[in-house]
Every structure is written in structure tokens, then in C-alpha cells.
Amino acid sequence: MEVHQLTPFLSVSSQLTAADVGLAASMGFKAIICNRPDQESHDQPDTDDIRAAAERHGLEWRYQPVVSGQITDTDVAAFHELMNSLHGPVLAFCRTGTRCTTLWALAEAPRLDVDAILKTTAAAGYDLTAQRDRIKALAGTHSHAEAMHTASRKRHDVLIVGGGAAGQSVAGSLLQRQPDLDIAIIEPRSEHYYQPGWTLVGGGVFERRETVRQMGKVMPDSVKWYHAAASGFRPEQQQVLLEDGEQIGYRILVVAPGLTLDWDAIPGLRESLGRNGVTSNYLFDLAPYTWELVQSTRKGRALFTQPPMPIKCAGAPQKAMYLSCDHWMRQGVLKDIEVEFCTAGAALFGVADYVPALMKYVEKYGINLNYQNNLIQVDGQAKTALFKVTDAEGNSQEVEKPFDMLHVCPPQRSPKLISESPLADAAGWIELNPETLQHSRFGDIFGLGDAGNTPNAKTAAAVRKQAPVVAENILLALKGEAPRAIYDGYGSCPLTVERGKIVLAEFGYGGKLQPSFPLWLVDGKEPSRFAWLLKEKMLPWIYWNAMLKGHEWMAGPEILNHRPADHEATQACDFGDRK
After folding, report:
1. InterPro entries, alphabetically (predicted)?
2. Which residues are annotated as catalytic?
3. Is the per-residue pLDDT at 565 higher than 90?
């Protein structure tokens, strides 16, 4: 928990957890204000849990949700009333603390000098210069000319939305090509995660701490970091709106926000996670619980679920299952555990060439395969899961299954930031050219990673190949040229079929196999010890030290010698200043 003091009466913080409340009480706070709406993101702690913790510690609790990027005068007035009604010191929190700080700044406008307000917020780590004119307006000294100047003065050659694997990799690739390029990244998180490692945390191979680093240590020094969430796009004005209302301009925009894990799409799931035998390797906090359950389960029924596509790393639900079964087999208890793989799909894996190798392990572990079984409800206390089961004729029925362990892969969707924006296609994903990764309607926008609508596997391996393509095409676009770097849909899924062996699935668009290594070294259609070594030892190092820094080993883009004819009419445009 990072607390930033604005006044002796009020401090602000990024997202709190229930565990943070006791620490806040020990620091002398008497009240907590939550300015973040419930269910704003998939990783957001349950507000009711935080409220209950506040009540247990004798702290006053106030819930004043404010929509990111849409702070109204009514919101400001309500915050001012809260301040007058509470006994301090008060701790207010939202996703990053920016909304709370902005509310305070605007509420204090009538009585404090604007420079004093901005100096105070800057000292607390929040740059609210974009709010200068609104603060002045509330104080009665607003200048329209100054407002226009302030709104347009922050502009970058390349603006990246998202500081995850995709956003950082593009920045690294761009800086390798043009070190003096003016780049900014919008990212609200303070931590950066190596998500592919969570499978191995859940399998007892990695420690959770090995998969996380501070965002500031990952971010390139020359990149401007807006430690805030984006709240909207204005492609016609070449602007991105931040959660505090600030507008950031760009010449080229890269959109890479990832996707949303929709835990609330399954009633009962969110409140069951981390207890009653319900877990998921898709969360940093829960992967260790998976390993605890695997170690403690000696008999009964273990269910592993997979929702309808698209999902990130489509093999991850199986990886958790195979590693669990391998441990149980080594401990001699697998014979007493009924293992079921319940997938909403109609096949074990989307690329048929790898299915025979996987089926050998399904048979070895005695796993029951249940196709077209979609998890629709969880009752953690009763330890039952409800599935919608569809037969070959399309008839459906609901089937309840008891469990002792339940590993869930949640449904996944495009973030509202994208799905409700002008950048989205009809299904809500970023509308991209599948080869150039340029937006299909806005030539100065590119996208990559999990939020794109390109028909490739949503994996970190895909991002490793996409980032150089986007970087190359951005530099062409900045010169007014059409994109010529091509992405072939490459994705990889190292399927951990047992501890020490992996089926290394590598494929591109249409399921075409794209092996990276000679057959004598790795036959991707067979389990391999070399592939395990690659997954356990080499890929994490490559991720942190090469991929994020723009070193494109075995990932250089294919660049066409001539501009594709079908792009000439629609993609060529002026990427300079718009009038």
C-alpha cells in the first residue's frame, strides 16, 4: 500500500485490499473513502470485503464511485460534502489515486490558489496540470485561450496505451530502431507481470515473486510514463483521454490494453475464488493456492474448466491439469482422484497436429474429457459446479457436478475501454489488419496483443512476433509510408504435459505449423525435455532481458519490398500534424 499525503486531513492511495485496512488503521486513519466503482476491472478486490474490514477496525466507510475520465461537478460537490462530514485523518482510494486527488483539487478550487493546489498534488506524485483550467473555472478565473493551450500541449510521436508485454515490447523495439523517438506509455499498474510463469507457480516449479517486477524498473528510462488509466479515445483529434480528464495527443497511437477476465460472468465464482477448493492460475494471487490444493488433494474429484473462445493462452487450463496429475501420479494418489476436463469447445486443442500427443497423456492420467461442457455457476460452500452441457444435436441441459478441487479458466472479453470505443469491430475487439496490425479505419493507429481481433493465439509468444512488425510499420507511418512489415499469425503454446516435458505447439494463421527449431532438436508434436528447459530456464530470461528491451532474437519481421497493392488506396495517409 502506497499512501500519498495531500493535507494532514486527507491522504490518497491506489487500490486497497481488505488486508491493507488494518495497516491503514495502524497509521492513524479514521475513515476510508472508495472512489472506484465496483467491477471496474477483473483484478479488482471485492469492495464489500474492504468495507467489512474497515468496520472491523472501527473506521468510517464511504463509497462514492466516480467513473474514470468523467468527473462531474456533482462528483466534486459530493466529495466536498464527504470531507466536511468525516473525522480525519481520511484515506481515499481509487485505481491509482488519481481520481481521488483530482476530486480534492477541484473541491479546493474555490479557496486555494491554483498553483498551490498543483504544487501539492505534484508533491504527492500526481501531475494535474491538465486540470489547471478547470480549477481556474471553479475559482472564477478561467481563460478559454489558456484552456485550449493546456489541452493540446502534451503530445508525443508515439503514444502507447498499455504497459504490459505488448506495450513494453513495442516501445523496446522502437527505441532499438530510433533511440531519440518521443514515446509515452499510459499504464495504471505499478507492477509488471510475467504471466506465462503462473502455470509453473501453480505447478510448484516457480515462486510467485519470480513473475513480478516494479513497472518503473521495466519501463525504459527515455519513455514518458503516464501512471494513470486511459478512459477514452478521440481518433479524429488524435487524442487519448485519461481518467482524470487529461488529454494526451499523438502522431501514432498503439493500443495494447490486454483483455478482461470476466469472473462475474459465472455467478458465485468471484466469491468462491481462493477458498473451498476453487482456484485459477489466471490470477497472480491465486496461482500459489493452486499448488496448495494440488498438494493437499489426496482423493475425490478434480475439475478443470475451459470457457468458450477467445481466451488468452488456450492451453493454460490443460497445463494446470497435466501438472496436477503428474504430481498426483508421483505421490501415488492419482488412482483415488477422478479428474475431468470440462471444456466448452468441441476439441481438446485447436490445432489437430498436437492432439495425438496430448491424448496419450489424457489416457496415461485417466482423465475424463467432457466436450461442450460450459461452466455457468459455482457454489463454493456446497462444492458444486453447474455446467451447460450440449450434445451433438445441439440440445442443452444443465448438469451439476460436485468437486473437491475446481480450477477455473474464466470467460474473457474485450475491455470496455475498447468495446465501447470507435476503435472496436462489431464484436468489441480492436479492428486490425491481420498482417500489418494497422487499424482498419484509422491509419495512424496500430494494435497488438490480446485485445486485437486478429485470428491468432493470444499468447506472449504472439506478442514477441507482433511487436517488431508494429515497430517497423510505425516508423514507416511516421514518414507517411504504407506499412510493409508482415505478421504471419505466429503463436506458441508450451503444453506442460508433465514435470520435465512439454509439447511445444507452434503455429500461425489457419493452424499452419511454424516450428522454430530443427526436428532433431525439438519435434513439437512429441513431448520434449528441451522444450521444458526452454520454458523453465530460457523464456523467462528472454522475456525480461530481450523481448521487453527490443532485442528481436528469432523474431525479426518479414518486410515486403513493395507496398501491397490492396493497401495503397486505403492505408496511405498523412501522419503529420492534422489541421
Report:
1. BLH_phosphatase-like, FAD/NAD-bd_sf, FAD/NAD-binding_dom, Prot-tyrosine_phosphatase-like, Sulphide_quinone_reductase
2. 313, 493
3. no
